[in-house]
Every structure is written in structure tokens, then in C-alpha cells.
């Protein structure tokens, strides 16, 4: 017997697993790990499945993390939030706003669990998780020992952290510590937020503006299957960026702290004439070319083939490789996407 994963991945891709379990506490998380070990099966921990693409049936046990809870403490200057990893990220932001704790509003409406947020250092509209993260607690699935990793040791970078490389299969993120200054200062660096006056803008205004833009620009996964940006925005050398700028003066480019340049992958895809392009049941979303959608019962092969076409076109025209942001899950767990889309 196998279990269907379609409802557990926001792409809505059909795939199955040996079994699926919901963990609502540490004991049940541990128990599922032991069950899998006894049966010599791999495990896959999922939050909302909003950043994964199944590229095969998963021959193991899927554990859906719903370990919830929140503790609040304060010092003179800061709020400290200790939140369990199965909480919903967006609902947490709403809760904090209601309590008068501000600073996470730019990350509104990012789907997924709190525990998944540090893994790719979620980011949007000028803010990244690393800017508000104090620590990440991980639990050893074998011994239940909990270890605290301070934010400075998480190696947070653009869509990257230590958790993408270490602790997989042996540990789970069990809780995250967030820190907010009691003196709120708005993050208005992103273009669409520059219209606000920093002296008068409220966190609620920023929250509402971001929710409105996201609702308008991004497909709602419960209506149109997707996993957000399929690729990362490539980070290239200044020389390469300048060459592109000379030929295409409108090319959106953003200087990074390491003197490299981030270039818009959506723009690169648009330049190849691929906005709205379809392959089988998969398509490039018409309002945002970085998002691949499950338009019509797409299979994982449709999504992979579409991604391959986009990548080949962008390489041919700009000599830039698009690295997937979405995590590819194969028979036994996460796999390297390169061999699928190069
Ligand atoms: P899942 O997809 O369930 O898991 C992702 C990976 O983390 C998997 O490899 C899984 O095994 C692992 N994992 C999950 N939980 C744990 C745990 N507790 N311990 C250890 N490993 C774990 N991302 C952004 O950064 N910015 C955006 O603006 C953004 N917008 C999006 C918009 C849409 C419409 C969608 C669909 C996605 C968007 N994303 C965005 C991507 C996604 O929301 C984030 O990556 C999110 O953090 C994924 O959370 P999840 O719980 O769904 O993770
Ligand atoms: N653009 C195009 N064509 C498009 C869309 C955008 O040319 O179809 C150009 C425009 O010039 C636009 C620029 O690209 O100004 C940037 O677009 P946008 O603001 O939509 O952001 P993005 O770079 O496409 C990134 C993140 C999103 C995040 C937004 C907002 C990555 C991979 N993606 O998208 O994160 O929400 O910025 O900060 O960095 C995700 O990670 O899943 C995700 C949705």
C-alpha cells in the first residue's frame, strides 16, 4: 500500500510515499524516525511542501511537522520569540502584529512552516529571516538531544544556510528564536515600499501593501499549483553584469555586499520569449516568469522538462546557469537537481 502526496506539496504533483504521518509533538516525531529506522526506510520531513518538487515516488516515510507552540519574553530593548517549528509562518506574523511586535511584516504571506524558514533563509521585500533570527534549535532524531545554533553560526546567505548541507536525515529543526527591537524601524528599501514616509508609515501599512502585491502577482497554491520562485536569481561578476547592461540597459541588476551582482532570473526568462510558455501540463506563470505552475495536471516530468528548456535558453542567450531554488525529492530523499535540468 502507498500514500498519495499530491495534497502535501504545493505544486500538487502526483507522487506517493510508503506512509505519511503527522507529528504533533517531539515524541511522535521521534517514534516515526524509529519506525523508519526499524524498516530501513528513509524519512522526509515536510512543513507545507511549498518548496519541494517530487521527481519520483518517495520510497520512505513522510513526516508532516505540526509541532506547535510559542513563548514570548522581553528585555528592556527587545522582544524574544521562541516558536516551535510546525507553526505557520504567515499566521505567526499576524499574531505578532496583533501583540504589537513589529519587524517581520515584510515577510508576510510566505507559505510554509516556521521551521522551514531558516533552511533557505526565506526572504522578500528587503528582509531575510537572518535579520530577525536569534537562534535555531535542532533535535537529534536518534537521541532527542536538542542543540542551539546561534544565528551567527547558521551561515545564512541568499536562499542558503547550514541546514541545506548538514543535519539532514539525522536532525530536525524543532524551534526558532526570533528577536525584535522594541523600537521599530521600517524596512523600505524595496522599490514598491519606497513611496512610504519612514516617519509616518505603520507596520500594518507595510503588511497590507505586501499582502496586496503578493496576492496580485503570485499564484495561490491552493488554486494553481506552484512552489514560488523555481530558480534563484543568479549572482554574477560585475564584468559579466556590465556586458549584459551595455546590450540591455533595462536589465534589472542589484549590487550585493560581496561586490557581485544579482540579476533578475524572471527578466532573463522573459528575454528568451518564454513568459507563459507551456510544456505538457506545466507553464511559466504569465504574471511572474520565475514561477513555474502546474497548469493542467502536470507530472514531475513536465515541470522538469519545462525547467530544462528555460535553463538551456538562458544559457544559450546569456551564458548564465539558473540554479533551482526548489528542492528536488527523489526515491530516497533530496537529490541534486543539476543532473535533471542541465
Ligand atoms: P517544505 O517545502 O515542506 O520543506 C522544504 C525543505 O525543508 C525540505 O527539504 C524539507 O525536508 C525540509 N524541512 C522542512 N521542515 C523541516 C524541519 N523542521 N527540519 C529540517 N528540515 C525540514 N520563499 C522565500 O524565501 N520568499 C518568498 O517570497 C517565497 N514566496 C513563495 C510564494 C509561494 C506562492 C510559494 C508556493 C512559495 C514561496 N516561497 C518563498 C518558498 C517557500 O514558501 C519557503 O521555502 C518556505 O520556507 C517553505 O516552507 P515549507 O514548510 O513549505 O517547507
Ligand atoms: N521581472 C521581469 N519579469 C517578470 C517578473 C519580474 O522582468 O515576470 C523583473 C522586474 O524588473 C522586477 C524584477 O524582475 O522588478 C524583480 O521581480 P520581483 O520583485 O517579482 O522579484 P523576483 O526577483 O522575481 C524575488 C524572490 C521572491 C520574493 C520577491 C520579493 C528569489 C528567487 N525570489 O523574486 O521569493 O518574494 O523577490 O522580494 O529571490 C521565492 O523565493 O519563492 C519567492 C517568491
From TrEMBL:
Its cofactor is FAD. The active site is at residues 159, 229, 325. Pfam families: FAD_binding_4, MurB_C. Transmembrane segments: none annotated. InterPro entries: FAD-bd_PCMH (IPR016166), FAD-bd_PCMH-like_sf (IPR036318), FAD-bd_PCMH_sub1 (IPR016167), FAD-bd_PCMH_sub2 (IPR016169), MurB (IPR003170), MurB_C (IPR011601), MurB_C_sf (IPR036635), Oxid_FAD_bind_N (IPR006094). It is an enzyme of class 1 (oxidoreductase). Its EC number is 1.3.1.98. Keywords: Cell cycle, Cell division, Cell shape, Cell wall biogenesis/degradation, Cytoplasm, FAD, Flavoprotein, NADP, Oxidoreductase, Peptidoglycan synthesis. It catalyses: UDP-N-acetyl-alpha-D-muramate + NADP(+) = UDP-N-acetyl-3-O-(1-carboxyvinyl)-alpha-D-glucosamine + NADPH + H(+). Pathway: Cell wall biogenesis; peptidoglycan biosynthesis. Residues 13-183 form the FAD-binding PCMH-type domain. GO terms for molecular function: UDP-N-acetylmuramate dehydrogenase activity. It is found in: Cytoplasm. Coiled coil: none annotated. The keyword Cell inner membrane does not apply. Belongs to the MurB family. Cell wall formation. This is UDP-N-acetylenolpyruvoylglucosamine reductase.
Amino acid at each position: 500500500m502507498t500514500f498519495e502526496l499530491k495534497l502535501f506539496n504545493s505544486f500538487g504533483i502526483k507522487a506517493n510515499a510508503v506512509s505519511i504521518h503527522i507529528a504533533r509533538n517531539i515524541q511522535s516525531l521521534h517514534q516515526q524516525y524509529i519506525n523508519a529506522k526499524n524498516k530501513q526506510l528513509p524519512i522526509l520531513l515536510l512543513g507545507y511542501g511549498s518548496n519541494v518538487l517530487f521527481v519520483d515516488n518517495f520510497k520512505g516515510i513522510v513526516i508532516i511537522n505540526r509541532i506547535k507552540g510559542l513563548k514570548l519574553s522581553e528585555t528592556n530593548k527587545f522582544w524574544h520569540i521562541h516558536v516551535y517549528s510546525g507553526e505557520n509562518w504567515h499566521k505567526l506574523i499576524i499574531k505578532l502584529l496583533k501583540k504589537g511586535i513589529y519587524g517581520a511584516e515584510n515577510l508576510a504571506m510566505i507559505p510554509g512552516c516556521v521551521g522551514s524558514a531558516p533552511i533557505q533563509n526565506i526572504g522578500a521585500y528587503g528582509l531575510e529571516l537572518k535579520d530577525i533570527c536569534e537562534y535555531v534549535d535542532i533535535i537529534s532524531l536518534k537521541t532527542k538531544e536538542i542543540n542551539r545554533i546561534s544565528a551567527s553560526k547558521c551561515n545564512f546567505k541568499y536562499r542558503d544556510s547550514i541546514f541545506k548541507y548538514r543535519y539532514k536525515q539525522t536532525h530536525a529543526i524543532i524551534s526558532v528564536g526570533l528577536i525584535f527591537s522594541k523600537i521599530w524601524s521600517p524596512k523600505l528599501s524595496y522599490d514598491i515600499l519606497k513611496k512610504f514616509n519612514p516617519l509616518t508609515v505603520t507596520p500594518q501599512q507595510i503588511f497590507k501593501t505586501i499582502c496586496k502585491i503578493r496576492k496580485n502577482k503570485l499564484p495561490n497554491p491552493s488554486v494553481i499549483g506552484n512552489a514560488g520562485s523555481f530558480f534563484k536569481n543568479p549572482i554574477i561578476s560585475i564584468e559579466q553584469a556590465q556586458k549584459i547592461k551595455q546590450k540591455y540597459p533595462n536589465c534589472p541588476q542589484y549590487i550585493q555586499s560581496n561586490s557581485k551582482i544579482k540579476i533578475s532570473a524572471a527578466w532573463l526568462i522573459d528575454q528568451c520569449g518564454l513568459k507563459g510558455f507551456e510544456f505538457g501540463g506545466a507553464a511559466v506563470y504569465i504574471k511572474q516568469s520565475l514561477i513555474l505552475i502546474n497548469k493542467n495536471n502536470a507530472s514531475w516530468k513536465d515541470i522538469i522538462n519545462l525547467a530544462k528548456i528555460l535553463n538551456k535558453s538562458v544559457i544559450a542567450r546569456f551564458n548564465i546557469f539558473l540554479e533551482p531554488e526548489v528542492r528536488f525529492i527523489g526515491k530516497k530523499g533530496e537529490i541534486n537537481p543539476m543532473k535533471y535540468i542541465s
